[in-house]
Amino acid sequence: MAEIRAGPVPYIYVCTRMRVRKSKLLPREEYMRMLNMGLAEITRFVGESQYKREVDELATSFRGIDLIETALSWNLAKEYQNIQKITPGTLKDLTRAYLRRWDIQNVLTIIRGKLHGEKKGKIREVLVPAGELDRVFLDRLLEEPTPERVIEALKGKGIYPILSRMTEGGVREELLPKVENELYKQFYADLIAYAHSGIKGGRQFLDYITLDIDITNIRTVFRIRADTSVSDIAGVLISGGTIPPQALQRVFQIKDTNEFIDALVPLIKVRPLRELLERLREEKSLREIEIELIKVQLAEMETMSKLHPFSIHPILAYLEMKKYEIFNLRALARGKESGLAPERIRGYLVV
């Protein structure tokens, strides 16, 4: 497919295409209907939807949950790759920069899989080659016999220096959360530097990146507050959002929930997020809190895309909404396979 040149008309074209794609995402009612289906029915439903091509291609090699997992991963990767093909000019550059977050997820998935002795096929099922590291390169990593060899095969790639430095004494499970945190901190620092580089659309790009960092940091604060053994979160917070990490570190120390919310709300600039935090005074599980934060983030992205309809925002909004459609379908399939009650599965859906 020929790449579209930059300019007003191509920008309008691609952003309009994003709105059309978004309109085809599954509505809430479909998820509620699937809650009452069995795994075979969900597989059939997925095979008759926009995932039909992938399901048909893979049906001779996979069955049940493996078929759904692999078809969803293939579809997401293809969709992200197609979007990069039709996106013009600097919008393409910004999109590619943002999608490099999948390189981190894919590499860490391979390393963890190798560490736990998973079969190559099982690891491959959940990889989404949407970033700089394509399917061919990821397959080469899967052929490496050990996590250490996987890291060595990444020499010359942007994520190699951190991986190499932090695993000098060998790859161990307890190191991986710290490695992951450092990789994402570097990822966001690179995005912020790119947004400030003078690239066209950088201001709108930065607006989303700062929102993403704020939501990520707030999720981290709630997650670690649930672990009473942790007293310092300075090392895991990401810099670059609208909320200074030092301020989050201070409010994190407040034990009483109402006092914690009272101190956190004034730090927040996004009104729907402040309103959500007020609702979190009530007792909620960590999972419920994380789902609510994701929903606020997606709603804010939708607002941004309406305020700037011919910018990077409609593209980023669709990328995230598509990701959570895959997330929801996986949660449904895994929940059904595990025999969970519909209401329990419902608690894992972003709807």
SSE layout and pairing:
Blueprint: H1 8-23, H2 28-34, H3 39-47, H4 52-58, H5 64-86, H6 89-99, H7 101-115, H8 120-125, H9 135-143, H10 147-152, H11 160-166, H12 176-195, H13 202-225, H14 245-252, H15 257-264, H16 271-279, H17 286-307, H18 312-337, H19 342-346
Helix pairs in contact: 1-18, 3-5, 5-6, 5-18, 7-12, 12-13, 13-14, 13-17, 17-18
In the predicted model, the low-confidence regions spanning at least 5 consecutive residues are 1-7
What is the tally of beta strands? Answer: 0
Structural class: mainly alpha
CATH architecture of the largest domain: Up-down Bundle
Query: What is the helical fraction, as a range of percent?
Result: 55-70%
What share of the residues does DSSP label as strand, in percent? Answer: under 5%
Instruction: Indicate the CATH class of the largest domain.
Output: Mainly Alpha
Instruction: Quote the average pLDDT.
Output: 93
Biggest sheet layout: none
Q: What is the domain tally? A: 3
Shape: globular
Terminal Cα separation, in Å? 34 Å
Round the Cα radius of gyration to an integer and report it. Answer: 21 Å
Count of DSSP-assigned helices = 19
